[in-house]
Amino acid sequence: MRGVTVDLATTTEGSGPPLVLLHGITEDASFWAPVVPLLTPWATVTTVDLRGHGASPDGGGYDLEDMADDVAATFGDEPPLVVGHSLGGLLAVVVAARHTTRGVVDVDQPLALGGLQAGVQQAAPLLRGSGAEFEGFMTAMFASMQGGTPDVEAAALAVRRRPRQDVVTGIWTPLLDWSPAELDAFVERTAAAVTVPVLSLHGLDPGPDYAAWLTARVPTATVEHWTDDDGADLGHHPHLRRPERFAARVREFASGL
């Protein structure tokens, strides 16, 4: 059902300007645990379980704008900096398009969604197939995003994920069921409504043309691609691979807002 706001499970700690952390699909607020203590000395940090994840209820649907409104309903009087990873990064941008925020940090979620849509539509029989087919696809997808993440670290993340078929296919309705033109229109409309500064920080290379693509649509955006000392991609969770560097970069970004 569209237009229904879900009361999300949240935890708040620290002191300073408000900062909201949004996790990725199949994950929950606990995935931010290594980063939170590095942010709380200077920020009031709220971690959120998105609808259908962690301790938050389902809400009867997974429209992205409704999910963004869920997040905005957790805000206090002062607009926060919204930091999101993967799905949370996309939602952070949607939140900024619909509500007042100080800025956005989008971690490893390109907004150019055409390639992702093509892959998801190709995998639709698996995503909507048996439980084993769905879980097999999700496992393979996350493995393909490992980058330079050591196997032991990737395995530790994998066992903590909770992939629910109804939640994933619900959230991915725009990828599964919309036409490319409909998806492009949503992205263009959302991007055009974002006026706050955006830090788009990637552990997987978003491609040589992505920075130009994004800044043409969100002129306030800055794009960064982080690698390890050998020049290899950090992988889909750069904030967990380099939490101290990440926290310092977020603080630097926040100081300019």
Automatic annotation (TrEMBL):
Identify the InterPro entries for this entry: AB_hydrolase_1, AB_hydrolase_fold, AB_hydrolase_sf
Q: Which Pfam families match?
A: Abhydrolase_6
An example Gene Ontology CC term for this record: membrane
A GO molecular-function descriptor: catalytic activity
> In what residue span(s) does the AB hydrolase-1 domain sit?
19-248
Q: What is this protein called?
A: Pimeloyl-ACP methyl ester carboxylesterase
Q: Which organism is it from?
A: Klenkia brasiliensis
